[in-house]
Amino acid sequence: MELYSGICGSYPRPPELRKAIDRYEKGYITKEELNSVYLKSLRMIIEIQERAGLNIISSGLLMWDDLLRPFAKGLEGIKLNGLLRFFDNNFYYRVPVIVDKIRRKKPIVLSEAKNLAKHTTRLKKLVLPGPFTFIQLSRNEYYSSMRSLADDILDALVDEIKDLAKFIDFLQIDEPSLVDSEIPIDNRKEGVNLVNELVSRIDIPRDKIIVATYFHLDEQCYQILLNLKTGLHIDMISTPRKAFNALKEYGFKGDLISLGLVDSRNIKVENVEEIANKAYDILDEIHAKAVIFSTNTWLDYIPFENARSKVEVLGKLLQIMRGEVT
């Protein structure tokens, strides 16, 4: 079994970058000056992950304001509207409103992938919003059928992934709506089909693709997720007993599973030995060729320095699970 460790998606912006973004938005600095601060911050985030011992490195999504924003701004046919709560968090996203045919005219996060590849020699992972969650969290004012909307979103994501593929080792497709109990089961099953359709159209090996869900997991949700033809990231923190029971009942026999064992929404630093014991219990219930130990969701729900502590826990966890320390 191959063992990895890496964060699930984002990292909080360093204070210097937060200040630079604010100054740029007020017109005090140029785009070039902002980009200089961004690249310095990116190198810092990469260094934090590498020093902690992680072997899958994320860009930290430092310029992403929310999961959908880069694509809502980068695709034609979409305008941004007001803020809505992002699931059950004190965290908000701007609602994409679809007002015309969706088209991708140019790469959206390609420069992010290139910069990540330039500044680390370790395995690299980039995140994209999944098609189902994008549709669920958007407001459609243009398409007469959901199939037409889905087709154009799939086309845009496929084109984006084709440009990214040679710069990354793992692709994470975020689909928290697949475990949203407020969405009817049949709709979520169609969401799984939509994700499978996406991955069938790209060249990245399916054992290098992770579909990430978070904030909830129970047996019913997990049964639906097992129809995904990809690797899977699951949140073992938000509903821990239900999540463990789901794994115990149905197991896992795929190539790749990512276990969200470190809490991204709480500043308390976990005891790494206790997390390792949980990890051993989970590994007894599953059969996977590769396992990633991860945070349960994005890290930018907590402050910058607290996130550093969480990353260090992940690095120590990987060492313990590999038998490098006792």
Kindly describe this structure:
It is a single chain. The chain has 326 residues and is α/β, with parallel strands linked by helices. The chain has a single domain, classed as TIM Barrel (Alpha-Beta Barrel), CATH 3.20.20.210. It is built from eleven helices and eleven strands. The strands form two sheets. Strands 1-11-10-9-8-7-5-2 form an eight-stranded parallel sheet. The protein has a three-stranded mixed sheet with strand order 3-4-6. Helix 1 runs antiparallel to helix 2 and helix 6 runs parallel beside helix 7. The two termini are 19 Å apart.
Rg: 19 Å
Mean pLDDT: 96
Quaternary assembly: single chain
State the secondary-structure class: alpha/beta
Q: Roughly how much helix do the residues carry, as a percent range? A: 40-55%
Largest sheet: 8 strands, parallel
Helices, by number, come to 11
Write down the CATH class: Alpha Beta
What pattern of helices and strands is seen along the backbone? EHHEHEEHEHEHEHEHEHEHEH
Terminus-to-terminus distance = 19 Å
Low-confidence stretches: none
**Could you name the CATH topology?**
TIM Barrel
In total, how many beta strands? Answer: 11
Strand order of the largest sheet: 1-11-10-9-8-7-5-2
What fraction strand?
A: 15-25%
